[in-house]
Structure prediction request, 478 residues.
Amino acid sequence: MKSVALHNLGCKVNAYELEVIGQKLQESGYMIVPFDDKADIYIVNTCTVTNIADRKSRQMLHRAKKRNPDAVVVAVGCYVQTGKEEALLDGSIDLAVGNNRKKDLLPILEAFLEERERNRAEAGRDAAADVKTLHHTSVVDISREEAYEEMSLSGWNKEDGGASQRTRAYIKIQDGCNQFCSYCIIPYARGRVRSRKQEDILKEVRGLAREGYKEIVFTGIHISSYGMDFIDKSDGDYLENGKDLRGTAMERAYLLNLVREIAEVDGIERIRLGSLEPRIITEKFVNGLAAVPKVCPHFHLSLQSGCDETLKRMNRHYTTEEYYDKVKLLRQVFGNPAITTDVITGFPGETEEEFAVTRRFLEKVDFFEMHVFKYSRRQGTVAASMENQVPEAVKAVRSGELLELEKRQSAAYREGYIGKEITVLTEEAREINGERYRIGHTDTYVKAAVPDEKAEGNMLVAGKAVKLLTEEILLLES
Prediction:
């Protein structure tokens, strides 16, 4: 039995894909071991969103080869996809597998291992280096790929603790992006939008529900575009009074219908959406979501900047006024939903005045959480060659200011629940200040604690929030 160590870098989509890969390997007789262990095979699912992500990907690959020079080191995913030539020259990488080929990683790996053993048998162990050129043409031109790469989870390893440890499942519903924001390499790494068939998604969800999962989280590279590639151009069903509806009404209809279908699956109690683009938030779409009680009132609405001039340079297709209207609509329909977002500070050309505009806008919106990123130059993007790059020291100061703002807003949102009835989906057991609790999340994704004697794992527990047990965790009444 060969041992395999897995390591993921980057987004939830990458994490989902590596979990599927690990499951297939385990089902085929491979032994999964921690990445820090000495293994026969190391698989790194790489990230390329920034130059720093590229560097981290290389570091993990080099670390694996250093840990066991005789191991097969497999580089998978986005770093390989955008830097195939560099990967082929990297002596630490034995096998490269790009995007839209991850589902075939097992047969690709086994073909590589067979060839490696043949070479060794013919020329002795010193010939192992000769097989490093065997990459099996596993990196394709992603821009030409039109089919969604079907990958599916069928549950989990019962030895890992079972349902009490696994309450929430991330479900990949689409891949690729057509937006081409000026700072982003992802359309080149992931290709164009490719949506997963609804029947395949439902099959996976039903299987996970039978295994005990209660919450489903939609994930993808650009889930707001789900279904746009399903539109049949031949009969004009994407036209309304001559207007092209792709990117607007048709996509909302496909995503909303998927939500409704999953809500009918027995055992699924919560449906949580991943990151959404502002354009998808309309009265019809929001009211449609609100009509499905299982939809969590937690919306990650991508922003990136609170300044219209900066948004233009980013090639984002909305204004701050439009964005704020979408937030108001969500709050009008859902009451007090958790609104979270991403913000990039120090984007090329961002002046002190533009940063001040962004800060005022963030204060006005009043988010539950903000993920604040310092702009990181990514070669191959439009923004990388823009003039007026912001110094790192300035980015650090601006990032620090926004993180302080985020901390205050987030604390105020949590405190707003004290004295109110909340429902928690319990997860892990934890000891805090000498007491045992079950930690879980509300439907708005606020962490909360339930006294251990009142709940087991993977239970929906209702009660009144009495105080903040820690800065981030609400306490339900005992």
Observations:
- The longest helix spans residues 392-415.
- Residues 420-477 form one domain.
- The longest strand covers residues 421-432.
- The two ends are 49 Å apart (CA to CA).
